């Protein structure tokens, strides 16, 4: 860690080193967000399977498709309710455990979260209710339109939430403010932030962090009057270039998880019963799943480009495992990653020492010097941090991520590896079982029957691939999101607020973390049981509607 001759080491540790309380808070939030993400993924993926079956019913008149569309609709409704419950818990957790995030919610996140609550979520809930009433009863154009509308509004809800998360990763509108503290960071869009407000908030939060938690600054008398408005443009989060790439790729991952769950359930039932009806239901689901899966590498590439440009420190952590010890030096030559990231296999990737040396560009200037130049009025709020070297602060930020780099890189390559296997499985399904194309189908048949068939049995190849796609979708989505969020450390808002500056001033004890985790897991277990019960009760929707189907 930084050993500054100015004695700033202990002050910087308060900002960048996680205490046990912060670790417990991170664990609770991670568990809650992941559980919520599971239910949201099912909410977004199930309608696509229902849609595929309803189209099959309308085209063929086969009542099997309608029967299972109704059954899955019941599961979808239960899952939707669980998503609401877990989402509410996560939102309260963000405000209670990470209270400084209120600044984000009331500033650049206000418009997307307001629209999510008032337009997307309420509209989706209404259309889900209408679909339950109309499926199998109303004309095709009505029920399909309602289903598509509910799915689109659910996806729009995801866009608004992911746009907020994208702003935390790429704080669009703050311009060059982060680079004043961390010279290796780029400019983040226009200079739309109120510099006085940002510096005042930063000073107050830093000062309070030294006393235990930066979030205590919000409780300071006259806090709102002191800081004023953060942004004059409420649409910044929606104009963020990272919002589109993040949303498209993440939503595709969610669709894949939801569709994969349906495909896996049908595949398991087929293996247990050998009832060909399950294969009949499986094929249209696999068509949609394969299309979603094969679109992900393209959208993932654009998302990766944003990381390379806007979050260079995170990108270096991503490639730590394949770059060897050189990653901790000035630069590393990793032709594969350089080709993907820069389009030039010979271009070196910055190592962690590169960032440390870039910090040296700040010279001997202190936070006090910076504030005297940019906003002298906020200088009194800095407290002891006024004498902290900007270069020491910059190095402390780099050093905070270095120990996490192997874990971040492992998550990143787990995502990449699972994604490659997932795309391979999708191709084997498409060209081996869903359509026939010369050469491609012959190659798929060779792998399916001469390789996989010898291991799992020829009759089990398609069910095996369906289950594999479900598992790999879940692994890729989980590992990718973990790499994205852990790789953002030491910041909650990249280059602006650290995790320690956002956490509650109330200690999050191991006992409290265990209690909250038990509640979340109990909700998930009861929810899964309710979904299983609904899935095994065909005709439940008709009975609840008072009809006979």
Integer count of domains: 1
Mean pLDDT: 89
Biggest sheet, spatial arrangement of strands: 1-2
Strand content: under 5%
Radius of gyration: 26 Å
Number of strands: 6
Q: Given the C-alpha coordinates, what overall shape results?
A: globular
Structural class: mainly alpha
Largest sheet: 2 strands, antiparallel
Helix content: over 70%
Q: How do the helices and strands follow one another from N- to C-terminus?
A: HHHHHHEHEHHHHHHHEHEHHHHHHEEHH
Give the termini distance in whole angstroms: 68 Å
What's the number of helices? 23
Task: Name the poorly predicted regions.
Answer: 1-6
Written description of the protein model:
By secondary structure, the protein is mainly alpha-helical. It has one domain (9-545). Helices cover 72% and strands 3% of the residues. It has a two-stranded antiparallel ribbon. It has a two-stranded antiparallel ribbon with strand order 3-4. A two-stranded antiparallel sheet has the order 5-6. Strand 5 (491-493) and strand 6 form a beta hairpin. Helix 19 runs antiparallel to helix 21.
């Amino acid at each position: 860690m930084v050993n500054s001759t100015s004695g700033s080491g202990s002050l910087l540790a308060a900002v960048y080193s996680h205490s046990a309380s912060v670790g417990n808070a991170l664990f609770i939030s991670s568990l809650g967000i992941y559980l919520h993400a599971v239910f949201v993924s099912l909410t977004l993926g199930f309608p696509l399977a229902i849609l595929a079956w309803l189209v099959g019913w309308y085209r063929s008149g086969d009542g099997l498709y309608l029967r299972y569309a109704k059954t899955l609709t019941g599961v979808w409704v239960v899952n939707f309710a669980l998503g609401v419950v877990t989402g509410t818990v996560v939102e309260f957790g963000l405000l209670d455990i990470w209270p400084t995030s209120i600044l984000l919610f009331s500033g650049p996140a206000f418009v997307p979260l307001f629209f999510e609550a008032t337009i997307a979520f309420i509209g989706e809930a209404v259309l889900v209710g209408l679909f339950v009433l109309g499926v199998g009863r109303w004309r095709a154009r009505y029920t399909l339109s309602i289903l598509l509308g509910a799915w689109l509004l659910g996806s729009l809800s995801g866009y608004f939430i992911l746009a907020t998360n994208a702003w935390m990763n790429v704080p669009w509108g703050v311009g060059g403010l982060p680079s004043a503290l961390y010279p290796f960071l780029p400019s983040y869009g226009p200079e739309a932030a109120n510099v006085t407000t940002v510096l005042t908030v930063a000073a107050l939060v830093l000062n309070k962090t030294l006393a235990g938690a930066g979030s205590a600054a919000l409780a300071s008398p006259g806090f709102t009057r002191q800081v004023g408005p953060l942004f004059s443009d409420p649409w910044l989060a929606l104009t963020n270039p990272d919002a589109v790439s993040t949303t498209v790729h993440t939503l595709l991952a969610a669709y894949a998880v939801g569709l994969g769950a349906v495909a896996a359930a049908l595949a398991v039932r087929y293996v247990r019963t050998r009832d060909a009806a399950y294969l009949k239901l499986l094929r249209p689901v696999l068509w949609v799943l394969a299309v979603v899966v094969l679109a992900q590498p393209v959208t993932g590439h654009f998302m990766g480009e944003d990381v390379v440009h806007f979050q260079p420190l995170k990108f270096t952590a991503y490639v730590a495992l394949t770059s060897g010890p050189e990653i901790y030096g000035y630069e590393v030559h990793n032709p594969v990653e350089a080709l993907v990231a820069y389009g030039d296999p010979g271009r070196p990737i910055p190592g962690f020492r590169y960032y440390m040396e870039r910090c040296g560009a700040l010279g001997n200037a202190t936070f006090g010097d910076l504030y005297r130049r940019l906003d002298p009025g906020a200088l009194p709020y800095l407290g002891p941090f006024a004498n902290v070297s900007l270069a020491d602060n910059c190095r402390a930020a780099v050093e905070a991520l270095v120990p996490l780099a192997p874990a971040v890189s492992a998550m990143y390559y787990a995502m990449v590896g699972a994604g490659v296997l997932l795309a391979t499985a999708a191709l084997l399904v498409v060209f081996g079982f869903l359509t026939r194309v010369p050469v491609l189908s012959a190659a798929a048949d060779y792998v399916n029957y001469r390789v996989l068939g010898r291991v799992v049995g020829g009759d089990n190849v398609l069910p095996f691939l369906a289950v594999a796609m479900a598992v790999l979708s879940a692994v890729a989505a989980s590992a990718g999101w973990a790499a994205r969020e852990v790789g953002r450390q030491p910041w909650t808002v990249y280059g602006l607020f650290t995790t320690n500056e956002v956490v509650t001033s109330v200690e999050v004890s191991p006992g409290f973390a265990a209690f909250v985790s038990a509640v979340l897991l109990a909700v998930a277990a009861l929810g899964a049981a309710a979904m299983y019960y609904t899935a095994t009760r065909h005709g439940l929707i008709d009975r609840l509607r008072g009809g006979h189907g």
